[in-house]
Amino acid sequence: MTLTRDAVLTALKDLRDPVGGDDIVSAGIVRALTVEDGAVRFVLEVAPDKAQAYGPVRDAAEAAVKALGATSVSAVMTAHSAPKPPPDLKGSGHSHPPKPLQGGPEKVPGVDRIIAIASGKGGVGKSTVSSNLACALAAEGRRVGLLDADVYGPSQPRMLGVTGRPASPDGKTILPMRNFGVTMMSIGLMTNEGQAVVWRGPMLMGALQQMLMQVQWGALDVLLVDLPPGTGDVQMTLAQKAQVDGAIVVSTPQDVALLDARKGIDMFNQMKVPILGLIENMSTHICSNCGHEEHIFGHGGVAAEAAKLGVPLLAEVPLHLDIRMASDGGAPIVVSKPDSPQATAFRDIARRMIAEGQA
Ligand SMILES: Nc1ncnc2c1ncn2[C@@H]1O[C@H](COP(=O)(O)OP(=O)(O)OP(=O)(O)O)[C@@H](O)[C@H]1O
């Protein structure tokens, strides 16, 4: 049976944090967990003066993961000064969103360009595209940030193998996480795991503003924003408050998805955000056993739509088991199998964006 990230996290949850008393996953000390072909890697991030107390925990964690059938386990302990908890986002019971920014779109300090990754409909692979594109741009040497603003289903922590709560040295600014060369912040890291968060409009806007302006992004060539599906408050707030340089719209080839994608494109047009191009995801299914290709959701619909709108079709990404497995394992296909044809689809988009000065 394939070892999954969830199975590893469940096993690690049986271990108690000797300092805080919680289990080590809830305590937020398990970071950068990746599971790849049975090989498990993670970091235990602990306060320097408590490092000794965690020695047995690391040994127990390695043993617990080995017992699950992992082919290899690497648990590295790093000592960091105790982080202050990050400022509370609205989802954790805070009732006053920060004062909205006044005025029109602003530049995020240090960030050269912002590109929104959008879709009309959920589940079409927008987050998969965002994480792979971010890793592909980083592999080309670009300084890349990824802001996971998908409030309804933040998936970037899982896809990029990032766990734990981001630190805030001064209680105001938030330090982003980093993996595979990508600086990342997700609304999912600010709320408690498993906690159902009911976001209301003003909360959403406040949270998005905080993540744009209070996160120390550092100097970035490009910040990708993984938006929630549809055309709602988050999309509007992003375009009103930050200078968005372009949008990429992801769609599957079916008519229903395309219909929704069109609404998204209209919204960006109204907000004067240029459409950099469309991506057809789950374009062709390639059987992982025999390599046979078939068009489960149809094929070519997005190309036709792009031609109609006069915008580029950036890629046709196949539906392939490896793409899902890689994302579920916490290392996108661009990182875990960089030379596969599936990864090449994403790497080509990254190279094209760089060549055109978009990233
Ligand atoms: N090209 C692909 N081949 C195989 N699986 C894919 C592909 N693209 C996405 N998936 C899988 O489909 C599921 C949905 O993808 P993803 O979470 O990226 O969609 P989304 O559009 O961001 O969804 P939502 O907006 O609802 O969060 C995931 O399990 C992902 O691994």
From TrEMBL:
PROSITE patterns: MRP. It holds the Pfam family FeS_assembly_P. Binds and transfers iron-sulfur (Fe-S) clusters to target apoproteins. Can hydrolyze ATP. Residues 5-73 form the MIP18 family-like domain. It comes from the Bacteria. Homodimer. It comes from Thalassococcus profundi. Belongs to the Mrp/NBP35 ATP-binding proteins family. In the C-terminal section; belongs to the Mrp/NBP35 ATP-binding proteins family. Residues 77-107 are annotated as: Disordered. GO terms for molecular function: 4 iron, 4 sulfur cluster binding; ATP binding; ATP hydrolysis activity; ATP-dependent FeS chaperone activity; metal ion binding. ATP binds at G120, K121, G122, G123, V124, G125, K126, S127. Signal peptide: none annotated. The keyword Ribosomal protein does not apply. Keywords: ATP-binding, Hydrolase, Iron, Iron-sulfur, Metal-binding, Nucleotide-binding. GO terms for biological process: iron-sulfur cluster assembly. This is Iron-sulfur cluster carrier protein.
